[in-house]
Amino acid sequence: MSIISVNDNGFLDKIKNKKVQFSCVISSIETTKYIPISGVNKKVIEYTPAADMELVVLGKSLSISTPPIDATGCPSPATITRANVDLKDIPVLTVDAGSAVKPKIPYISVDEKPTGDIYKGKAMDNSKELFKMGEIIGKNLTCDVLIIGESVPGGTTTALGVLLGLGYDAKDKISSGSVENPKELKLNVVENGLKYAKSKDVFDVLNAVGDKMMPVVAGMAFSSAKQGRPVILAGGTQMASVLSVISEIDKNYKKENILKSGLVSIGTTEFVLNDKNADLKGIVEQIDENVPIFASKFDYDKSELDGLKSYCKGSVKEGVGAGGISVYSYANGLNLNKVRKYVEKNYYKWFSVDEWIILH
Amino acid sequence: MSIISVNDNGFLDKIKNKKVQFSCVISSIETTKYIPISGVNKKVIEYTPAADMELVVLGKSLSISTPPIDATGCPSPATITRANVDLKDIPVLTVDAGSAVKPKIPYISVDEKPTGDIYKGKAMDNSKELFKMGEIIGKNLTCDVLIIGESVPGGTTTALGVLLGLGYDAKDKISSGSVENPKELKLNVVENGLKYAKSKDVFDVLNAVGDKMMPVVAGMAFSSAKQGRPVILAGGTQMASVLSVISEIDKNYKKENILKSGLVSIGTTEFVLNDKNADLKGIVEQIDENVPIFASKFDYDKSELDGLKSYCKGSVKEGVGAGGISVYSYANGLNLNKVRKYVEKNYYKWFSVDEWIILH
C-alpha cells in the first residue's frame, strides 16, 4: 500500500471520486532574513513561495530561473505537487498570506505584508481577521474535497512557537526541511517571542510567534467542515500546529467540534512521519487522538538522481502540500512510481545545470 | 416565465442542478476621475467595486458606509446579486483587475493597478498577459457552471470603444447605468483614444480603449469552455463587448470555435434587453448569431420603494452580474418576487437614512 494510515477513521473513502481543489497558503517570515531558522538558501528565500506555486500551476518557475532547490540538489517538494496536479488534473488555488515576492499567477490576496519578526513576538496583529478571511475563502469554494498545503520558509519554527505557546509538549517533536535541524536556535527564537504574547489566547499566541498561513488555513478548514467537505491539512508538523490552532479556536470561540466530525485529516509524506528527529504522531495525539494522519510513500530510493535520493536521507521531506496531495491521488488510483518518473523526466528541464551553478 | 430568451439553444438545460460559481471581475478606470462618463457619484466612484463585492459576499459594505446608491435612491445592482447569493447559497469569487480601492474580503489579484486613461489610448499595456491570467483562473476552478459578472464604473464607455475598434456598428447601441446616457461624450472619449491604438488587433484595441476586466473575463471563458463548462457572461452591453473580444481572439489566436460550442451565453436584465437607447441583441447578432441571450425579469414595478421602481424607469439597469445570476437562479427554481422581497427587506438596513443623506 502506498499510504501509511494512523488513526484511520474511514476518511479515505470520503475523498474517492470526488471533485478536489488543491489550495496552498503562502507567507514569508521577516525573521528568516537575519536568523538562519530555515534551511532555504538565503539568496532565494524570499522567492521560494512564489516560485513553488508558479511551478505547481504552470510547470515552470517565473520569479527565479529554476524552482527552489537545496545545496545537495534536492528539489523543492513543489515538484511532487506539480506531478500530482498534472497527472491527475487537479485545480490549484494560491492564497497569499504575505509572501515577500508575489507569484506571477493569479492568487487570492488576504494579506499583502509578510509575517513579521517572531523573535520579537511581532508575527502579526491581525490573526483574528485572517481567520475570518480564511472562513470566507472556504465558504465560497465549490469543490467536494479540499486539500490545503503551505509554503512558508521558516514555518517549522512558527509551528514550534505556537504549539509551545498553547501548552503542548513539542520541544523535540518538530520536523525540519534540513538534514540538520537547528533545534536550539529555533527554540531560542520562539521562547523569546513568546515573552511578548499578550495572553495564552490562541490569537495572541499567533500574533506573537505564529505565521499568517496558520489562521487562514484554520478558517478555511472551519467553513469547509461546516459544509460537510472533507479537508486534508497537507503538511507535516506545521499542519499539526494548525491543528492545535483549530482545536483551540473551537474550544474557546466556535464550539463546533470540528475535529470530532471526522472531516479533518492530516496528509503528509513518509519522510516526515518517519523522521527520527521529530514526532508528528505524538503531537497530533496530544491535540485530538481522533484525527487521522495519512502519509504518502515515495520510491525515491529507486531514483538515479541524487537530488531525489536526498529525500530518503532527510532533505526537504515535505512542503507545498506534496504529501497530502499525493495521499489524495493515491487514494484515487495514482501509482507512486508515476510521481517519481514525472519528476525525473522533468528534472533536467527544470534545473538546467547552468542555472543550478548560478544559484549555488 | 421569468426569463426572456433570445436565440435559445438549450443552454438553460445545461445549467440546471449543477454546481455553480459566481465570479465578478472588478476594475476602476482613470478617465472617470476627470470626465463624467459614469453616472456613479464622483465621491464614491473609486469605492464602488469594493463596496459592491463586500455586499455580495458579506451582506454589508465595509469600504463605505452604505452600498453604492444613485442620486434617485436607486440601489446598486449588487443588491440583486446579494439576494441571489444568499437565497440560493451561491459561492462567490472576486477577481481584482485593478479596482482603485481593494475590497476588504479575499479576492483573486491579477492586476493591482486600475485601467488607465482611455481618452489618451492608454487603458493598459498588458491585455495579452491579463487574458492568460484569466485562462489560468478558469482552468483552476472546480464548478460545473461559471457565471462571470463585472463591476467597472465607466465600463459602458470602454465597451463602446472596443466594439468600435473591432469594427462593429455600436454607436447607438451601447447601454448606460444612467437614465440620461451621455452618448456624445462617450463617443468623443473613445474616438480620441482609438487614434492611439497601435493596430486593429484585439489586444492593441484593448490596450488603447478597453478595461482590464475584459481580457480577464475572456480568458476565464476560454478555459472554462475548453473544459466543457457552461459560462454565463453576466452583464449587458459590456459583456457583448467581451463577446467581441472572445470572438476576435478565437479567430486570430486560439481557433477553438468556442462561440459555436453552445457553452457561452449572455445573461442580463430585462432593463438592458429592453433599453430603447441601446441594442444588446443587435450587437450580439453582429458578433455571432448563435450566442443565446437570456434576460431575467424583475417585478420592481410592484415595489413600494421608489429606489426599486427607478430600475423600471431606466436607472442602473444592470451590473455586478445581477441579471446573469438571476437567470441561473430562476432556471433553478427561484421565484422573481423572492428577489424583490429580499432587497425590500434589507433596503433600510443597508441604506439607513442618515447615511444616505451624508452621501448625497
Write structural notes for this entry.
The structure is a homodimer of 360-residue chains. With 360 residues, chain A is an alpha/beta fold. Helices cover 42% and strands 12% of the residues of chain A. Chain A contains 15 helices and eight strands. In chain A, strands 1-8-7-6-5-2-3-4 form an eight-stranded mixed sheet. In chain A, helix 5 packs across helix 6 (183-194). Chain A is globular and about 50 Å long. Chain A starts with a strand and ends with a helix. In chain A, 62% of the residues are buried. The model of chain A is unreliable at 356-360 (pLDDT under 50). The A-B interface holds A 19-21, 57-58, 91-93, 95-96, 102, 105-110, 133, 136-137, 139-143 and B 19-21, 57-58, 91-93, 95-96, 102, 105-110, 133, 136-137, 139-143.
Q: Order of helices and strands of chain A, N to C?
A: EHEHHEEHEHHHHEHEHHEHHHH
Q: Can you count the helices of chain A?
A: 15
Percent helix among the residues of chain A? 40-55%
The most extensive contact between chains is: A-B, 25 and 25 residues
List its traits.
homodimer, 360 residues, alpha/beta, eight-stranded mixed sheet, 15 helices, 42% helix, 12% strand, globular, disordered C terminus
